[in-house]
TrEMBL record:
TM region positions: none
Domain D-isomer specific 2-hydroxyacid dehydrogenase NAD-binding: 110-287
D-isomer specific 2-hydroxyacid dehydrogenase catalytic domain span: 4-319
Organism this protein belongs to: Staphylococcus marylandisciuri
Protein name: D-glycerate dehydrogenase
Amino acid sequence: MKKIVVTRKIPAEFLDQLENLGEVEVWNSEYEPMPRERFLTEIKDATACLITLSERIDQEVFEAAPHLKVIANMAVGYDNIDLQLASRHDVIVTNTPSVLTEATAELGVTLTLSVARKVIEAQDYVKQGKWQSWGPYLFAGKDLHGATVGIFGMGDIGKAYARRLTGFNTTILYHNRSRHLQAEQELGARYVDFETLLKESDFVVCTAPLTSETENKFDRAAFNQMKNDAIFINIGRGPIVDEEALVEALKHNEIAACGLDVLREEPIRMDHPLLDMEQAVILPHIGSATKETRDNMIQLCVDNIEGVLQRGEAKTQVND
Ligand code: GLV
């Protein structure tokens, strides 16, 4: 009997499907990851696993799991997994592209507007009983319409974000490893180098994956080049940003504000200086968190596990 390890609580309809494929060992907590020691024990005789981005898949895991055939990562990003090692151990790694693109772009726009219009601060002000009267500049924010928005990372999510912005009459710049002529034609996005993106954008929005090229891309020098009233949004991955540099940039008014859905360390430590910054809106990595999208992501993981166990092939394999 094949064993399938599932590192989080998932709805019964998906467990039922997995139970048709093998014996399922599930960690029945929605908000706490399976402890590493437990994962290393469970994975020993497993053929498949359905994991989240909280699990780090490294040498120790591959050494512990000689029967493993497939790792279905419930995320589009897979920087938590050593792909080269996976290939060397003949393990297929899959992710969940496409199904989360639109929801993540929607969260990106939500975060952008929330920061621009100080929605969170304004709500806190009301709930704390501070609202005395209407004020001419009470929580006066920044226009998105008419602004120049620079998108760093023009993959599916970057494009879906840009598509939404066309309704706001913005000028869209983008920087990416390669040019996307279709996005340029359809969305009117203009390709620029990284420096130009930083210098000319009123909003700088990071949608990029974490790679050796993008790690620490937003450092002291990058924030320095941004406009003093710029808003920085990150819906990509935390380590793309040097968070100390971001704190300094906010403290010294080198940029106006930021909205982060992703952090270098998740969950954020409660003594992290970003938490003291009024100008920072911080979310607990909820880019793809709609019920429909999360269902679709889990279904894709289940389909990938089924594909590998039954036919030796996955729908969305990411390693060679
Ligand atoms: C979430 O960040 C994902 O990669 O799906």
